[in-house]
Design goal:
483 residues; mainly beta; seven-stranded mixed sheet; 5 helices; 31 strands; 42% strand; MORN; MORN repeat containing 1
């Protein structure tokens, strides 16, 4: 019985065959004459047929289905030279059909293959963990596909030979989105970007950059803007391209308006400038394109909250050249706004001067700041005003005058024969002194659109007292002339 069992055709023990001849049928081991191949498995008619394992001399192997001596069907393959492995369908010895390729360097592909290359639809995870799902051709991403990048960006669109090309949508990790044409892996052609900062650009792109992108901020109007003391004014702004055209393709860039006052530091009077600033409030002067520096100065606007007239008067009491006797009627008068203060200490009516709405978003390359005005000098800014008596003490030398300011009003009656009432004094106390100022418009878009901040725009602003007092000599200019 034992001998019969050993001769059973169901036995999986390799048959001993004469040297140099492969097994005819059943299960057997055969080492090829060149010693490069060794096969162990099923045979039929002297050919590998069924399940078996073919081992190569370099350590590579295939284990799986054989048909008429060929690798055909489901199997697993290891390449010793690369360390890559494949499990799936084979045709004539090559991976073909559906399968999973695992790369020793990292990464994995699951999908369709042809002649050992990625072909058709599949999912590729590279060694960095980036994931692509879509069409392949000749081992490359080609056709329609979606990819999640290492930085969190997601792309859904067309691919050509491993590069984004055609139409696609990119959703970036920071929240920005681009939809449009691509070429050679960059934005190219018509497309729109909604940036995470709120900026939207619609138009042509060239090599990843907007073709009609703004390159500068321009404040419209005359070279020097003249305004009366205490008056409000508007500032119109354009975003322009290099050729001077308005960048109408851009919306949403955030612009901030601010002001500065001319800073004069005379060599003979090193401690004197338009404003003597407390040490704690000193800052580096800002260079302007007008041949002088400036220091920051506050703006105010009727459209938003700010100091009420009473608080403005109190804060400017120490800074004002007016006598306290002129300020007190304004502080005490209920006629500041034509009625008593409502509960909470806020003035009634619409008389409350306000801080500026200092930021505006651009629409089609344009923005406008309405009802802008210069506020009173802030705490720590002490205007140095040269009255007639001071001029005499200084020997009437023009060098003792400060560049940006006019001669200060005195307590004498103004032209017209009447002294200002409380409301007029309040208005003057809450306004900037006559002189030379600078309006600045900055690009404060956060984060900067495409990593670029536009240069600050400047406008020279001259505040006059409407003829109430003459304009003094400015050091470095010609003799003073009446304003």
């Amino acid at each position: 019985m034992a001998a019969a069992s050993e001769r059973s055709p169901n036995s999986r023990q390799p048959r001993r065959v004469p040297p140099g001849r492969p097994p005819r049928d059943g299960y057997g081991v055969y080492i090829y004459p060149n010693s490069f191949f060794r096969y162990e498995g099923e045979w039929k008619g002297g050919k590998k047929h069924g399940h078996g394992k073919l081992v190569f001399k370099d350590g590579s192997y295939y284990e799986g289905q054989f048909v008429d001596g060929e690798i055909m069907g489901e199997g697993c393959r290891l390449w010793a030279s690369s360390g890559n492995t494949y499990s799936g369908q084979f045709v004539l010895g090559e991976p073909q059909g559906r399968g999973i390729m695992t790369y020793k360097a990292g990464g994995r592909y699951e999908g369709e293959l042809s002649h050992g290359m990625r072909e058709g639809h599949g999912c590729l995870v590279d060694q960095d963990g980036q994931v692509y799902r879509g069409a392949f051709h000749s081992n490359k991403r080609h056709g329609r596909g979606q990819m999640v990048f290492l930085n969190g960006d997601k792309y859904d669109g067309d691919w050509v030979r491993d590069q984004r090309q055609g139409h696609g949508v990119l959703c970036q990790a920071d929240g920005s989105t681009y939809e449009g044409q691509w070429h050679s892996d960059v934005f190219s052609g018509l497309g729109s970007m909604a940036h995470c900062s709120g900026v939207v650009y619609r138009g042509m792109w060239i090599n990843g950059h907007p073709a009609a992108q703004a390159t500068r901020i321009v404040i419209l109007g005359p070279e020097v803007m003249d305004v009366a003391q205490g008056s409000s004014f508007s500032v119109k702004v354009q975003l322009q391209q290099d050729d001077g055209e308005v960048a109408k393709s851009e919306d949403g860039r955030v612009l901030k308006i601010s002001a500065g006052v001319r800073y004069v530091q005379l060599q003979a009077y090193s401690e004197v400038s338009f404003f003597k600033v407390d040490e704690d409030d000193r800052e580096m002067p800002i260079q302007t394109p007008f041949g002088f520096d400036c220091i920051t100065y506050p703006l105010s606007s009727p459209k938003s909250g700010g100091l009420e007239p009473r608080a403005a008067l109190e804060s400017s009491r120490a800074n004002s050249p007016l006598h306290e006797g002129d300020l007190e009627p304004a502080l005490a008068s209920d006629a500041l706004c034509g009625q008593e203060d409502p509960p909470g200490g806020l003035p009634g009516g619409g008389c409350k001067p306000c801080c500026p709405e200092d930021c505006q978003r651009v629409e089609r390359g344009c923005a406008q700041f309405m009802d802008v005005r210069l506020g009173p000098p802030p705490p720590g800014y002490h205007p140095v005003l040269f009255l007639g008596g001071v001029h005499k003490k200084a020997g009437n030398s023009p060098r003792s005058c400060l560049g940006p300011m006019r001669t200060a009003p005195t307590t004498q009656d103004p032209p017209g024969g009447s002294r200002p009432d409380g409301a007029a004094v309040a208005e003057l106390a809450a306004a900037a002194f006559p002189g030379e100022y600078v309006i600045m418009v900055r690009d404060v878009t956060t984060p900067p659109f495409l990593g670029r901040v536009l240069p600050t725009a400047f406008k020279h602003l001259r505040v006059s007292a409407e003829g109430a007092w003459p304009r003094p000599h400015i050091p470095g200019e010609g003799p003073g002339t009446p304003s």
